């Protein structure tokens, strides 16, 4: 079977590095399962198939860049493809126009092909504000107009349908072998590490409030390293400014530099605020990356892959401050053996298992 994975992302921008890696990993998994698979995205130079430029297009600089991407991406795809596929696996992008035109054209010209729409988050409307929220809501309503032409949707929770589209329930995964397990940290403090995009739904402010409210003696037991950028960055830095001895912010890190921060860490910080966008479940990539590194971690939502494991700590799914004493007490009891946690990752969180679920439903 020939499969095309379509992501509306820039493969050469640091902000989408993790998403681009996910797309490549999914393609590798389909290939490992015996299928021909290509992946389509864009770079600063134009459209790329399997990371190779196939069609030059100048999207311009901001704000023209965002405008052109919004209107052109899905409209252009049927024009630039040189072959047909049995399956088109499309990552849904709320901030795009033209998806309905592409799906209509594919279903008309290639009626035997299957169209699968991937929802990396659902519901997603509450992730946006202002004009973007209105656009995202309007664009999703347009999906219902052509939902009959979409064969399946993939979701990260247990819902059965989205606007009448039958759902395939999958979980996020990673290429475990591409991530190095951490080394043993001999520091006597509990070194907390967050790696990810700084948005309100991550809930990092809950942890900073925990530092603010803790007794000095308890704060002394911890350090907190926050690696990432995003819309909450300035607010979080302002909150943490009186506690620079304990909390440090770093820009996005990659490869060996990122490895070094994992080596210093004792406990990873998962999602602490998904309830703020109306969800109680997360199949977060960072949960899986912490696990692959051999790092115990804590979070507040449901994540069925880890909920019953002895290397995780669960905290309340609300806006209360994270109690550092509670974290300290529970950390003393969790599994910390890097090899044990890594072996769990190798056995349970690869992409082949998740992509097979999709193939089983076609």
Short synopsis of the structure:
The chain is of the alpha/beta class. It contains 12 helices and 15 strands. It has helices at residues 17-32, 64-80, 99-109, 130-145, 204-213, 216-219, 233-240, 255-264, 285-293, 324-331, 338-348, 351-360, and strands at 2-10, 36-43, 46-49, 52-56, 87-91, 114-118, 152-155, 161-162, 165-169, 190-195, 222-227, 247-250, 267-269, 297-299, 312-314.
The spatial strand order of the largest sheet comes to: 4-3-2-1-5-6-7-9-8
Record field, number of beta strands? 15
The proportion of strand residues reads 15-25%
Alpha-carbon distance between the two ends: 11 Å
Notes on the structure:
The protein is 36% helix and 20% strand. The chain is α/β, with parallel strands linked by helices. The protein has 2 domains: 2-169, Rossmann fold (3-Layer(aba) Sandwich), CATH 3.40.50; 177-347, Glycogen Phosphorylase B (Rossmann fold). The strands form 2 sheets. A 9-stranded mixed sheet has the order 4-3-2-1-5-6-7-9-8, sandwiched between helices. It has a 6-stranded parallel sheet with strand order 12-11-10-13-14-15, with helices on both faces. Helix 9 (285-293) links the parallel strand 13 (267-269) and strand 14 (297-299). Helix 1 packs across helix 12, helix 2 (64-80) packs parallel to helix 3 and helix 9 packs across helix 11 (338-348).
